[in-house]
Amino acid sequence: MADLKRWTLNRHIAVSLLAITAAMAMIPKAEAAEETCFKTPTPVMSLGFGSRYEADSKTRSDIDEDSDAAVTKALKPIDQFIQNLAKVVSKAETEKDVATRRQYQRCVVDSIYAWAKADALNDMRTFNAKLSIPARIGGLAILFAESRDQVPGLHDRERIVEKWLQKRGQEIVYFFENEATKGAARNNLRAWASLAVGEVGVLNRDRGLVEWAILSNNTMIVNASPDGSLPLEMNRQRYALHYQLHAMAPLVTSVARICDAGYGKGGADLEKLQTMARFSVAAVKDPKIVQKINGKSQTVKPGLKNNLSAIAWLEPYVALSNDLEMKAEFEALRPMSNTKLGGNLTKLYDGRRVSCTISAQN
Length: 362
Known about the structure:
This protein is mainly alpha-helical. It has one domain: Glycosyltransferase (Alpha/alpha barrel). It has helices spanning 2-36, 65-94, 98-117, 127-145, 155-178, 188-204, 207-222, 231-234, 240-260, 270-285, 288-294, 314-321, 324-330, 345-349; strands at residues 46-47, 123-124, 337-338, 343-344. The strands form 2 sheets. It has a two-stranded parallel ribbon with strand order 1-2. The chain has a two-stranded antiparallel sheet with strand order 3-4. A hairpin with a 4-residue loop joins strand 3 (337-338) and strand 4 (343-344). Helix 2 runs antiparallel to helix 3, helix 3 crosses helix 5 (155-178) and helix 6 (188-204) runs parallel beside helix 9 (240-260).
């Protein structure tokens, strides 16, 4: 009888030890899941805010501090979401372990899917909200593009994300074709819209959206001055260089990504784009170049090192143009990152050569 009791006790102890061991084994897995992702924020459904600028600022260069703060606050949840996604995408790009890399990619797809399922960003209630949303849709679309079709079992979720982005892209086109002011329809805001619509078009194999983006990009390049400056941005007084860079970022990235997807450059003058890129870099090194154009000292602090995020588009530019002289300008400053352009752009483009040969079948 005593032997039976001892056997029963030992058995209970062994079972308990197995349970403890199993529980402890789960801890690293839980911690790993937390390390490869973040808590998806509540989807933002609606936005409605005014302009960052004073009502009587004809050049949109006089900041209204209270309104500016309100706009930044309204957009912060979306921008923080994009920043978190970009960090995960960048980790995936450098991760050598396949299983861990897929966990990062799953994180991105699942997080954006949560917003797509909720039909996020479907209610842009003001003119300025409609102007601001393309840069965010573009950022989400690129980060999703860098993560989709990598993890088995996510096909259905990925199709839902693609259709959600397609709706937002179609809304952007409608706004810029029917509601945007003449200036907004041609300046940096159009470039951000082009990046978003082109990326969404590529994701959905929607040639209509892609062609709209190609035409928008070509118009931006054609309208640039012979010296490479953008006239509408040069009118922005002391913010002129800031907005020149703000236009170049989506413009160059859009041209490169559409070419890379096999849709070609649609007749875009890449030599003119080179002039625009070189003007922009020269002006960052010496903002007085812009001051000579519009007579105003610039807010941009001189030097490439002081403007890394604003010039991160140089990575897709060099991949597109093979402009080795420009590459030498920023090579020592790598890595170059911009969350709305895909995160770590050095990882995305270093050593790559983007071809504008047409290969897309749709």
